[in-house]
Write a structure and sequence with these properties.
By secondary structure, the chain is of the alpha+beta class. Helix content is about 30%, strand content about 25%. Strand 4 and strand 5 form a beta hairpin. Helix 3 crosses helix 4.
Length: about 220
């Protein structure tokens, strides 16, 4: 499998390549807010935590929450992975059935803040979210401002072909390399979360292949 160079993929605008900027130069330049499709009930055996994290991996944080609460890692749920190199706010659930609730403020540090803690009757499951709100700050912007404005207007009218970016494929594309090794040699990862990450990388790689071809054909935004 050839690792994708995100910036070499075909664009939907012929003038897009004349514009450029640095993205996420600092973690604080990329903010993500997760939104649920419902509100926690306010009672139940699960504590739902709305956590703001900076430069922190979602899966690692879930394990730290489990360790702090004295529960198994499977007792902690979250709707989806969030970028590490960013300031992200997302929900975690902790099943505290029969256990005392810990002092969540004692879990905070410079990179982790507990914004809300509320009870609910069920575990937070993967994909159970209404969406994410993103806030990006671009730096070192180059290109004609008129072209920037034209392309932004084009995006507002037509949307944008949403490639999976390099982070999905792991450091230096290692997730794709592991996928190829698994599929060709049968060396399946032992941990479930690792299998999930590798399969997701392979799916994303195939998605980018299809999307790139459809951009070349000029039908990327049509059924």
């Amino acid at each position: 499998m050839k690792h994708f160079d995100y910036f070499s993929l075909p664009r939907h605008s012929a003038t897009a390549s004349s514009c450029g900027a640095k993205l996420r130069e600092k973690a604080v330049y990329f903010e993500v807010e997760e939104h649920l499709p419902f509100s926690p009930e306010g009672e139940g055996s699960h504590v739902w935590l709305y956590v703001q994290k900076t430069d922190t991996n979602t899966d690692w944080l879930a394990q730290e929450i489990a360790r702090f609460a004295g529960v198994s890692p499977v007792a902690v749920g979250y709707a989806g992975l969030k970028d590490r190199h960013a300031v992200t706010s997302q929900w975690f659930s902790v099943n505290l059935q029969g256990l005392p609730e810990p002092d969540w403020l004692a879990f905070e540090n410079e990179q982790i803040k507990i914004l809300k803690a509320v009870r609910h009757s069920k575990k937070l499951k993967r994909g159970a979210l209404a969406g994410n709100r993103f806030r990006l700050r671009l730096t070192d912007i180059v290109g004609d401002m008129n072209i920037w404005e034209q392309n932004l207007q084009l995006i507002a009218e037509q949307g944008v072909p949403n490639y999976f970016a390099e982070q999905r494929f792991g450091h230096h594309g290692n997730n794709l390399k592991k996928a190829e090794q698994w599929f060709t040699e049968g060396t399946e990862p032992k941990k479930r979360n690792q299998r999930s990450i590798i399969i997701s990388a392979a799916r994303s790689w195939l998605f980018n292949l299809v999307l790139a071809e459809r951009i070349r054909q000029g039908n990327w935004n049509q059924l």
